[in-house]
Specification:
- Residues 14-377 form the tRNA-guanine(15) transglycosylase-like domain.
- The chain has 382 residues and is α/β, with parallel strands linked by helices.
- It folds into two domains: 6-276, Queuine tRNA-ribosyltransferase-like (TIM Barrel, Alpha-Beta Barrel); 283-378, no CATH class.
- Helices cover 42% and strands 19% of the residues.
- It has 15 helices and 16 strands.
- The strands form four sheets. An eight-stranded parallel beta barrel has the order 4-5-6-10-11-12-13-14, surrounded by four helices. The protein has a three-stranded antiparallel β-sheet with strand order 1-2-3.
- Helix 7 packs parallel to helix 8 and helix 13 crosses helix 14.
- The radius of gyration is 21 Å and the shape is globular.
Amino acid sequence: MSKKRYTLLKKDGKARRGRFETPHGTIETPVFMNVGTLAVIKGAVSTMDLKEIGCQVELSNTYHLHLRPSDKVVYKLGGLHKFMNWDRPILTDSGGFQVFSLSNIRKIKEEGVYFNSHIDGRKVFMGPEESMQIQSNLASTIAMAFDECIPNPSTREYVEKSVARTTRWLERCKAELDRLNSLDETINKEQMLFGINQGGCYEDIRIEHAKIIAKMDLDGYAIGGLAVGETHEEMYRIIDAVVPHLPEDKPIYLMGVGTPENILEAVDRGVDFFDCVLPARNGRHGHVFTKNGKINLMNAKFELDTRPIDEGCQCPTCRSYTRAYIRHLFKAKEMLAMRLCVLHNLYFYNKLMEDIRTAIENGNFSEFKEQRLREWKSGDCK
């Protein structure tokens, strides 16, 4: 039986304010995990920067690190925490989504997935055991179970078969991680496992799968296979259907989501964990978040704008630099432009989560959510 690690501190409607204890520190939830696919945030952001902008959890990618530099290299160097100089929690995804995205060069079988490396074309095999072994070598705080991310739309027959296989794979992941955590040579013998709910946009399949995996007493539960082409309304409908059937005493993670609006809506439906490449990716292209919505710093109207990106923001960028200067850096193709915008966007997301936690504690999350949505929608974005 898994240890009790998650404490539900307060509920405001369905919104949950929690605390999750891990071998690498406490996570205050709801939380946004800052995505560092290859053990680094794209945009020249260091782990020291991550601490300054309030990052609680860093997320790295099993598939990419397995190919480069290889999980065995990371193991020899003492695991991800030592490798990237980060002493707070790390979640590693299982590689399932990346394998899903390689649809032209992969073959799914019961034992696992055969595919070709996107780097050099070499043949690679990954199944539940291999995913757990790689994540154990990486020594992350939280390992994600290996699953199949189902394309949308998919036929009911395909989804049912896929979900049944994902359940069998989850059982194999749990057995293998238990074995790995018992070995003397394992770096993190307290590595935790999150299972993933799948089922496409079929509510009844989702609910049945949630009930099955809820009985497996995992450390946490994720809702996967969303944000892959369905509408926001469909995504919210599935979250509404699934969350009541997952354990209330375990954290719930909505994978790969999303926009600030998506996060507010999902928190309102009981979700605790989020991750998305959006803030960093947008920042690298000069698209930045403000209290009045998103702006594009490439626009000519910012050429002489001496204001910070977001007035009142306390991020390192807004405390020191103007919109005009950052726009100049982009036009001059200077790397500092990307760095400053990524720092700002990640700070914006981490601060949003902090404000969400405070609103739930104060019992006014609903009002907070409506106010933020109104500001982002009606903001002048000047």
